[in-house]
Automatic annotation (TrEMBL):
Highest taxon of source: Eukaryota
Source organism of the structure: Salinomyces thailandicus
The protein's name: 3-methyl-2-oxobutanoate dehydrogenase (2-methylpropanoyl-transferring)
GO biological process, one term: generation of precursor metabolites and energy
EC number: 1.2.4.4
Biased composition (Basic residues): 1-19
One Pfam family, short name: Transketolase_C
Cited SUPFAM superfamilies: Thiamin diphosphate-binding fold (THDP-binding), TK C-terminal domain-like
Length: 392
């Protein structure tokens, strides 16, 4: 029997809306203020900036751009994949009418219900069907409606999708789940509570045979998703749901791919290295701007993009230069991605470290409905961590 927790209660009226500190920044706050997505340097605010990315193909660099948000970029990538390869399928709960976040909007109309279709409410069934389709030569893109719902499918992903190629031995080229992508919205939005706020990427990063990818922006989402669909490994593609509409930038109109398992240095620096991915990238950017102004330091910012297998060489090269490392992620600190990055940096850069590696992450507790944002690293915590490693 499939069960699903659905929140349908109506919240009581708040007689003091200005006092809802959990959902807004405090008065006179200097650090913890809302991200200004219209000015952040992490997004391409002009067509020229978007097309200057050296990772783009020649066709994409010589083309045009459109200013879209993250869910529209996902939609554009899915449309191109479906249009260019008849083996691509798209399915999941409510996918045919556009999905909860509208990522698959209008795709069923264009490609028909044989290639874009709804499934029953069974995550185990969705993953199992996707694995079977991939093994028969298709390139299925399966959507799990929220990352919080993926756990019934965990057995299928870990014990089947991840092991198929290894188990096939000399027949690996003919027996694999290459082309399988499992998409899922993840992370907090400020009011998702227990069942709509989780970031389970570290669970999948322990599984050899799968890749785990998390984009930070619309342009990254389009290129990384197309790379994931073309990849011959199963890919867990986690989309930060709070960025679906918040992050808007110029995205190349032509199809393009971005490299998997390659980190991107977004800002060079010489005193501190910050490593992050997904939504916290914007928190880190705000924190380093304040820290550089107040402490007269220079901070290097790295986006992992692929969480597993991640780009160890790029991170260690940066830390050997700066001597200090901070890892920031939204998911819980215990056994998280930051623990693996910190251990790797300690092993590979020990003699160059000027301070212990810092982890700024979510607290080891469940997400509450009222105070969800207090679980997630904010600008003040990252700022304080920068000051701590500089003063050590």
């Amino acid at each position: 029997m499939i069960t699903r927790t659905v929140c349908r209660h109506r919240a009581p009226k708040n007689p003091h809306p200005a006092r809802r500190w959990y959902a807004s920044h405090p008065p006179k706050a200097r650090l913890n203020i809302p991200t200004d997505y219209s000015t952040t340097p992490l997004l391409h605010h002009t067509s020229k900036a978007a097309l200057s990315n050296k990772e783009l193909s020649t066709e994409a660099r010589n083309g045009t751009t459109s200013r879209i948000n993250l869910f529209q970029a996902i939609n554009a990538a899915l449309a191109h994949a479906l249009r260019s390869d008849q083996r691509v399928l798209l399915f999941g709960e409510d996918v045919a009418f556009g999905g909860v976040f509208r990522c698959s909007m209008n795709l069923a109309t264009e490609f028909g219900d044989e290639r874009v279709f709804n499934t029953p409410l069974s995550e185990q069934g969705i993953a199992g069907f996707a694995i079977g389709a991939a093994m028969e030569g298709m390139r299925p893109v399966a959507e799990i409606q929220f990352a919080d719902y993926v756990y019934p499918a965990f057995d299928q992903i870990v014990n089947e999708a991840a092991k198929v190629r290894y188990r096939a031995g000399v027949n690996a080229d003919a027996q694999s789940c290459g082309g399988l992508v499992i998409r899922m919205p993840s992370g907090g939005v400020g009011h998702g509570a227990l069942y709509h706020s989780q970031s389970p990427e570290s669970l999948f990063s322990h599984i050899p045979g799968v890749r785990v990818v998390i984009p930070r922006s619309p342009a990254q989402a389009k290129g990384l998703l197309l790379s994931s669909i073309a990849c011959n490994d199963p890919v867990i593609f986690m989309e930060p749901k709070i960025l679906y509409r918040a992050a808007v930038e110029h995205v190349p109109a032509e199809p393009y791919t971005l490299p998997l398992s390659k980190a991107e240095v977004l800002k060079e620096g010489k005193d501190v290295t910050i490593v992050s991915y997904g939504t916290p990238m914007y928190t880190c950017q705000s924190a380093l701007e304040a820290a550089e102004r107040d402490f007269k330091c220079s901070v290097e910012l790295i986006d992992l993009r692929t969480i597993y297998p991640w780009d160890r060489q790029a991170v260690m090269a940066s830390v050997r230069k700066t001597g200090r490392c901070i890892v920031v992620h939204e998911s819980m600190v215990n056994a998280g991605v930051g623990a693996e990055v910190a251990a790797t940096v300690q092993e590979g850069c020990f003699l160059r470290l000027e301070a212990p590696v810092q982890r700024v992450a979510g607290w080891s507790t469940h997400a509450g409905l009222a105070y969800e944002k207090f679980n997630i690293p904010d600008v003040a915590r990252v700022y304080d961590s920068i000051r701590a490693v500089l003063e050590f």
